[in-house]
Amino acid sequence: MRPIVEIIRLEENHNYGTFGVLKINKEVFCVTLEPSDRENEQNVSSIPPQQYICERVQSPKFGETFQVKNVPGRSHILFHAGNVKDQTAGCILLGEHFGKLKGSRAVLNSGLTFHNFLAMMQNQVKFHLTIKEEY
User: Fold this and answer.
1) Residues of the chain above pLDDT 70, percent
2) Which CATH architecture does the domain made up of 4-133 adopt?
């Protein structure tokens, strides 16, 4: 059975990005960081809130991950490890908790959290993702 995966955006700060939580099967799994909303501009904007299909891919830069498909005017939107907005490149960063890194708001313990996400999704080739805003 495919998991129910949701990102609920909680806060947006143009200096630091868009922060949220990722839920799997209605339980909070981790926190997320995306770029700020720049009207879906490629590589610098968060993804418009709606439903998407995510598929397992092999990224040359990040290795095994999932790609968010069918985002209008966009491609190569991945889930991956990273801590601050400048590391998103339009993608979704996963972290254990919110914090600060070198004076910037951040998601922390990202490498281990991303590894745990892949382990949780090990039997999945694709899943549905719903993105909601709760500002």
Assistant:
1) 100
2) Beta Barrel (2.40)
